[in-house]
Each structure stands twice: as structure tokens, then as C-alpha cells.
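Dear colleagues,

For the upcoming journal club I promised to circulate an example of a predicted protein-ligand complex. I picked one with zinc ion because it came up in last month's discussion. The inputs are reproduced below in full, followed by the predicted structure.
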Amino acid sequence: MKKTLIITSAVVGAIVIVCGLFIFIGYQKFMSIDAVEYDPELEILFGGGGNSIILTAEDGLTAFVVDTKMGSAAKAMRKKVKVKGILVINTHAHQDHIGGNGLYPDAKLIAGAYTKEQWESGAGKSRYPDETIKPGEEKILRIGSEIVHIRNMGNAHTSNDVVVYLEKRKLLVTGDIVFLNKHPVLFAKSGCKVASWVNVLDSLYNRYDIKALVPGHGDVSDKNALISMRDYFTDIRDAVGDASKLAVLKKKYKAYSSVPGMSSFEKTIAFIKNEQGNK
Ligand SMILES: [Zn+2]
């Protein structure tokens, strides 16, 4: 009896260690940054939380930062921004995109029009924006020779998702409106609504002339990433309640990865089912 107990404890201990190792490796992977020089003025930083960009004006006096990552990745990113005049945009109030805001105390901070309560529930103690943009509003400014559009798309991944469009480069930064080849994170408390998210994806496709697209998570893509994200939602929405259709979709999306502990095919089904039930 005692021997069985010792063996059982050893097996449980080994499982805990292996699971811990998997979570640790997943977290390390999530936190690593991959920096790509898109052109001399534009750097794209993948991972370390959400994707970010740093656009520096040709005169080297102003930098425009979209999303500030989190933890050690946020600090590594901050070291790359060497100019004094910094403008920071947050695509949305989730910690993996705004965790480094505090490292830019003198920068002007712009984000969607979250109430302070909404901001704190997703972004914790991170500084509330100096300027907010309401759903449907667009702010246009210049960074060097680039014309930057900052637009609040309204309700999608959260209640106030902001996108950034670099007009001359025809490059769209979507924040978490696009998870590329990944199951998206869906939090009801952030105001996530799949039904309006689908409309936002269509609207972005029609509004901007897109050559390159930087998603919130995943590699650089093009406008087809908007279609893939929309199809993912409409596929699942139309199959909810039909086990055989869902089994086919599970195969279709089996190459999609998950954000550790936060997203999966099953979590998307449950979210959409719940949203449909609450109509
Ligand atoms: Zn997010």
C-alpha cells in the first residue's frame, strides 16, 4: 500500500514538472522578440507580448510607437527608441500590448475611448491615455514623410479597438483584430463581440488599400489576413450546434496555435455559442 502511494506520488510529481516545463517554454516563446527592419525608418518587433512597430521620422527627431509589449520585452524595446519626441499609440487595453507604457513617461499616449474602469480592468495600473479617440473617429498626423491614420474601429476584440494605417507604405497595424493562424483571445469582460468583430474586418478590407498587414500576434501578412480571420469566425458561427460540421472545422484549423492558457478552438466555440444565446 505504502509502495503504491510512493509510486503514485512520483508519477504525479513528474506530470507536474513536465506540465510546468511546457508552460515555462510556452511563456519564454511568447516573451521573445524578433525585430525586423522593414525599411530604414520602420522597425517591426514581433512577440514579447503583442506585435509592435517603431516608426522614426527621417530627421531622427520624432518616433511613433505602436504598442509597448510587457515585462523584459518592453524594456528591450524601449532601448531601441532613442529620440526625445515620442508618440505612443495603444491598439487596445490588454497588458501584453500596453505593459511597457510606464517606460515612456514623457511621451504623449493615445488610445481608444475606454472609460477608466474599462482601462483598468484590461490594462491594470498602466497610465490612462492623454488623448482618446471615439469609435468611428480617425486622427491623421504626419511622422516625417509618412501620413499616419489612427482609427477607432469600435467593438471587436475589445470595446475600443484602434488600428494604425501608414498611408505611404500602405501598411496596416491591426492590433488584436487579427490573430494570424492562431485561435484568438476572447474576453467578454473586455467588451469582445464576435458579431461586430466580423463587420470590423469587412470594413477594414474595404476602407484601406493594404499592401502589408501587421497583426496583433503572428507574422507580417497582407489583406488576406482580414479574410482568414473573418472566415474563421463565420465558419464556427455557422457550425455551432452541429457536431459533424465542427469536426470538419477542427481539422481545417488544426494548424492554428493557441495563446498559452487563453485561446483554443473549443474556447472560440463556447464564446460564440454564449454570444448567440445572449442575443
Ligand atoms: Zn488583446
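Two points we might discuss: The chain has a mean pLDDT of 91. Residues 32-277 form a domain with the Metallo-beta-lactamase; Chain A fold (CATH 3.60.15.10).

See you all on Thursday,
B. R.
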